[in-house]
Amino acid sequence: MKKIPVRRPLRPLGSQRQRVGFVNLITASALICGILSIIHASLGHFFLSAQLIMGAMILDGLDGTFARLLKAESAFGAEFDTFVDITCFGIAPGMLVYYAVLPTQLGMFLAAAIALSGATRLARFKVVDPDHGMSGYTGMPITANAGCLAGLIMLVFNPDLNEVIDVPAWLAFTKGGWLLPAMIVNCVAGLLLQVSTIRYPKPTNTPLGQFIAVLAFIGLFMNKQTAVYSCFYLVPVGLGYIYLAPLWFAWKRRKTA
């Protein structure tokens, strides 16, 4: 009787150690972005500092994706990723807010509060969300807060902003405009939402939505003109997720109950 050949599943290329090392290298690159973001914020390079936070977000997403695709998940990688999250999405945004938005004693307190809120959010995530957010999150994800803050900073401190759009005086960051107090209020709201018990859905995008999001993130790093248009897409999406997603999630859960 002729044997039917059985196709064996393809194994990931490289040894397990090499695959894990590759994923950890991506994670380390994200951590370096966070450290450089803090340094550039202290030097007054606010646009670049925010850009590095966005870059860390991309790398943070890639390391998890590659870990699953290459079957390179490890306990060390999971712990390493936590240090990246607190540095890039807790400490770095807090320092950026202090240097760029509120360089005062109140700004010091706000920066410390943002970092403390992020650390609390990450610690509680492992305890309260053991399924790693597959069924939703308790409290706003730390990456959502960091991405929204970085996007706003990139928009405000983009030297080419006035060439792309004529910013009215009432919206200006300085000279009596309400954008500065609005950003401070958003910072306070974000750090409170991170440690709240409000349920957030796991972001789920259609292929078209994912494609647009990838293009927007690429646009952040092409030139400062495309960065303006990318921020005009990413910032409203981020704000919508922060303030509207919990209402939609609560309505959906009540409807299916």
In a nutshell, what does this entry contain?
The chain has 257 residues and is an all-alpha fold. The protein has nine helices and two strands, in the order H-H-H-H-E-H-H-H-E-H-H. It has a two-stranded antiparallel sheet with strand order 1-2.
Characterise this structure.
By secondary structure, the protein is mainly alpha-helical. It is built from nine helices and two strands; from the N terminus they run ααααβαααβαα. It has a two-stranded antiparallel sheet. α3 packs antiparallel against α4. The longest helix has 33 residues, at 224-256. The protein is globular and about 55 Å long. The mean pLDDT is 82.
Beta content comes to under 5%
Terminal CA distance: 56 Å
The topology string of helices and strands comes to HHHHEHHHEHH
- The helical percent reads over 70%
The biggest sheet amounts to:
2 strands, antiparallel
Structural class computed from helices and strand pairing: mainly alpha
Rounded mean pLDDT score: 82
Strand order of the largest sheet: 1-2
Taking pLDDT < 50 over at least 5 consecutive residues as the criterion, the unreliable ranges are: none
Number of helices: 9
Shape: globular
Task: Compute the CA-based radius of gyration.
Answer: 20 Å
